[in-house]
Prior knowledge:
Elements: H1 19-36, H2 43-47, H3 56-66, E1 72-77, E2 80-85, H4 90-96, H5 108-120, H6 125-132, H7 138-146, E3 150-152, E4 165-167, H8 169-174, H9 186-191
Antiparallel strand pairs: 1-2, 3-4
Helix pairs in contact: 1-3
Amino acid sequence: MAKDRRAPELDRELADLPPELRWREWMRRIEAVLFASASPVPRGDLARVVGQEAPVDLLVADLAADLEGRAFEIAQVAGGWIFRTRAAYAPAIRAAADVGDQLLDLNEFDIAVLAAIAYHQPITRDGLKDIFGKEISRDLIGRLHAQDLIGTGPRAPRRGAPYTFVTTAQFLVAFGLETLADLPEREQLADAGIVGVG
C-alpha cells in the first residue's frame, strides 16, 4: 500500500519570524526556485513562495545585490528571472566543458533573417523575400525553428493562407531581452553599421 506523501503546507507569511529573518527566508526561497529552473521564472510563480504582501521585485533586487562579485547573476529575460553566468566567465566555461551544442550556430545572414522576423513579426517567407530581395530557404527557417528561436505564427490573411513566423521566448532568453520592446531601435542598428539605412 502506498503511503500518503503529501508535502507539508508551505508557510508563506512566516509571521512568527522577525521581519529581517522573514525577508532573508523569502530571498532564499526565490533563490532556490531560480536555481532549480532551466527557464525564466515569472513574477507570479515567485509570488507563490513568499507572503501575499511580499514585494517580489524588491526581493529579487536584494538577491541580485547579494550576488555582486559572484560568477553568476540574475537576469530579467522573457517575462521572468533566471540565473546565468556573467559574460566575463564565458571563456572559462568554454575551456572547461564542451558547450558547442549549447552555442547558437548562426551565421551573419541567419542573424539578419532572425532580426527581420523579430522586427516585422508576424511575417511570411514572401515578406522576408521582399526585405532581402531573394527567396529565404526552408532550410534556414527550419534551422531557426530547430533552435527554438522562431515559431509558427498565425496564418496570413491572404490567398493560400501562408504560415507566418514569430520569435519565441527562447529568442528573448538567447539575446538577453525581457520583451521585444527591448530590441534596439533600427536607427541604433544603422548607426552601429549592422543594418543599412532605409
